[in-house]
Design brief:
The chain is of the alpha+beta class. The chain has three domains: 8-90; 94-293, no CATH class; 297-401, OB fold (Dihydrolipoamide Acetyltransferase, E2P) (Beta Barrel), CATH 2.40.50. It has helices spanning 15-24, 63-78, 82-90, 113-135, 147-155, 180-183, 194-217, 225-231, 235-245, 278-293, 339-350; strands at 28-33, 37-43, 49-55, 94-102, 157-158, 166-173, 252-258, 273-277, 297-310, 317-326, 329-338, 354-364, 367-379, 399-401.
């Protein structure tokens, strides 16, 4: 058993933080003893309770020993190490999202290097999907983010990895609740901070995915794509969740939430723990594929060679086909351009130069279409023989824009 002598850092944890943690874990403060200690209880079974004596006066001669006993009791009750509990107690000012991978190879708490890297990437991609869905629900998110999304991602912190399979923790700091009493009064509507909304969006999306998996297995219908998107599910989230579990027959991914006690949980009906097996993630992968194939991808930049030109006589528009790489596969994307942009594409085609066109990408049947095209640009392919500088009037000889 770890004592304060073996792990002196735990005695520096203030009783206020410990009290917040106990409340979060549904312990109930039963009694205050002469303003020097509190008694907290939690049901162990129908007839017995766990009990914690929490000292609140630092001047007590046995303060360190009592604090050590608190952590030892919590370790027994939660069946977790004291170091894990210490980490959660000291992070009560943050929402903690814990990603755990369980497979045969992790029984000793270790993991292959490649899977360890994938776990960190998985956590990052899941959090990116969650914050993007909070700002603007969409079927697919590109790599360009709004300032609000970037600021949130920059503030995330990665905790120490943990044993017991393999665990990666993400800490999302939550602004303090300056008047928590208001949040418990129905007549006052206090909006939770953005950081809490992101955590909630992720938990809500994971719970919905679990429900869709269950419905699919039972051959029941699931909501429309638009309803799925509004919940916070995206192709990005689905792909992140399936990246590891589909590689192994026995892999199991769990994601759990420890909510900062400073703010009430937005919806008590949302679970705190979610487990995804290989069977469930195969269904989630299919949901992600359908989302991706039917998504309107905004501000999509298509870069490729013009392989087809079509313009009817006296028309002020023309249709081009770009051959480009998308998702690691060679694709053909069609778009209709105003005449000045079309003529630019004709020039690029004649010189065998690449073109960049930005617009809204959508799939219709087997065809990829780029609607509302803009920012049409000829790109220098890095081959000087393909580009005659004298024919380009722009100041920059490597790029021509309309």
């Amino acid at each position: 058993m770890t004592t304060y002598r073996e792990d002196s850092k735990i005695i520096n944890v203030g009783p206020q933080l410990i009290g917040q943690y106990l409340k979060l874990k549904r312990w109930e403060m039963q009694q205050v003893i002469n303003d020097i200690a509190q008694i907290w209880i939690k049901p162990a079974n129908k007839s017995e309770n766990y009990e914690i004596l929490l000292p609140i006066d630092h001047t007590l001669t046995d303060y360190s020993r009592r604090i050590s006993e608190v952590f030892s009791t919590l370790s027994i009750v939660e069946n977790r190490s004291i170091s894990e509990i210490y980490s959660d107690v000291t992070n009560t000012g943050s929402d903690i999202i814990r990603f755990r991978l369980q497979e045969t190879s992790t029984s000793n708490g270790s993991i292959s290097l490649s899977h360890g890297v994938q776990m960190v990437c998985l956590a990052e991609e899941v959090m990116k999907a969650a914050v993007n869905a909070t700002v603007r629900p969409s079927a697919v998110y590109q790599s360009r983010y709004s300032e609000e999304v970037r600021n949130y991602l920059d503030n995330l912190q990665m905790g120490q990895t943990e044993r017991g399979s393999y665990v990666v923790t993400v800490s999302s700091p939550i602004p303090p609740n300056v008047n928590p009493a208001f949040t418990e009064m129905k007549e006052f509507e206090v909006k939770p901070p953005f950081e809490r909304e992101v955590s909630f969006t992720l938990a809500k999306a994971l719970q919905a995915l679990k429900g869709y998996v269950s419905n699919s297995i039972q051959e029941q219908s699931i909501p429309t794509m638009e309803e799925i998107i509004q919940i916070g599910i995206s192709a990005n989230l689905c792909e992140a969740l399936t990246a590891l579990t589909l590689d192994s027959n026995d892999a199991e991914l769990s994601i759990s939430f420890l909510w900062s006690p400073g703010w009430q949980k937005i919806d008590q009906s949302i679970n705190d723990n979610f487990v995804f097996t290989r069977e469930s993630t195969s269904i989630i992968k299919e949901i992600g594929r359908v989302l991706k194939e039917n998504a309107v991808i905004e501000d999509y930049e298509a870069m490729g060679f013009v392989t087809k030109l079509e313009q009817e006589p006296h028309k002020k528009t023309g249709q081009i086909t770009l051959t480009t790489w998308k998702d690691g596969v060679l694709r053909k994307i069609t778009t209709v351009l105003a005449d000045q942009y079309y003529q630019l594409s004709v020039e690029a085609h004649s010189k065998r130069l690449m073109v960049s066109v930005t617009g809204e990408l959508i799939k219709k049947g087997k065809r990829w279409l780029l609607n509302n095209p803009r920012k049409v640009t000829i790109l220098d392919n890095g081959d000087d023989e393909m580009l005659d500088d004298s024919e380009i009037s722009e100041a920059d000889p490597r790029q021509k824009k309309i």
